[in-house]
Amino acid sequence: MPRVTDLGITIGLLPPGPTGSVLDVPGAGLGHATIWRDEPDPPAGRGVARTGVTVIDPGGDLFTAPVPAGGAVLNGAGECTGLLAIREWGLAETPVFLTSTMQVGRVYDAACELLIAEQPAIGTEDVIIPVVAECDDSFLSDSRRMQVEQADVRRALQAARASVGGRAADEGAVGAGTGMSCLGYKGGIGTASRIVPGEHTVGVVALTNFGDRGRLTVAGQPAGQLLPDPAGQAERPGPAGSCIVVVLTDGPLDAAGCTRLARRAGPAPAVPGTTPVGKSSWPWPPGCAHRAAAGRPGPRSPAPGWTTISPRWWRPPRRRCSTPCCSR
Questions:
Q1: Do the beta carbons of residue 219 and residue 187 sit within 8 Å?
Q2: How many CB atoms lie within 10 A of CB 246?
Q3: Which of 76, 163, 179, 280 is most exposed by smallest CB count within 10 Å?
Q4: Contact between residue 56 and residue 96 where contact means Cβ atoms under 8 Å apart
Q5: Which of the listed ranges 159-163, 214-218, 284-288 does the model predict with the highest average pLDDT?
C-alpha cells in the first residue's frame, strides 16, 4: 500500500528523514510479530485472532545504560506498565512493547524472560519493569483466549533489532496494529520521522485505535466528511478507544526534556544516547556519605520535590558506589 507521502501529500513543515520512519533515529529498531488465524470459538478453539506484538528498541544494552525517558497521559485509560517508574526515575531500561489489551501480561512475562536470557545481571544486581503498552483490538480479534506466546514476543524483538539502519519499516495491519480500528476505517500502526533544526531526528510510532469517521482529517482536510460511507460495512467499531505514541530522538534532551516532550507529543518517549539529569538520576542512595558531602538531602530531611516514599527511588542502584555507606 502507498504511504501518504507517495501520494504527494505533505504533512507539516519539517522535512522527513531518509525512510520517513523511526528507523531514521540512529540505533532505533522497529519490529512486528503478526498473529492471524481462524479457529472455532472458545472453548473449542481460540477463535479469530487478528492481533500481534510490536517492539520499539532504542538500541544498546538498556539495563546497564538506561536512556532518559518521560511519559504523559492525555484523557486516556490505555495501560502502560513501567510508566510510573519512567515518571519517577526519568529512565527507561527496556524496549517498548506494544500489544492488545488482554495480552499485556503475556508480553510482560515474555519480555522479562527474554531480557533475562540476554543479560544475566537482571534479577541478580537489580530487577526490570518492562514497558508494555496496549490498545484494544477485541472488535476484530477474540480476546477470550490468550493469543500471544513467548515466541511471538521473541520474533518481534528480533525483528526490531534486525531492522536497525534499514530502508523501510512495516506499517498498517501488522504486529500490534493487526486488529486496530481507527476513525471508522481499518486502523493499525504507523511511523514517521522529521529532521528538526540542529540536524537532529525525531521519530514516532503510533498505535491507533480510536475515533469516528467524521473526525478523520488529512493535511487539514475533513476527509472523513468528504468520503462516502464504506460499502457493506454492517457493523462499525465504537468511537471510544486509545492511541499509544512512542517518540524517539537523538537530540540533546535530558529526562526533564523528555517529560516536556511527552506532554506535548504523546506518551512514553525514549531518548537514546543522551545523559540523564534531574532528581531521578542521582547515583547515590538517601543517607549516603557521598550525598551528604555533596549537600544532597537524606531520607530524614528531604528537599521539596524529592521522593522518599520508596527505598528504591534513587534508581539505578547498580550505579552506586562500593563504600559501606551505600550497601543495602
A1: no
A2: 28
A3: 76
A4: yes
A5: 159-163
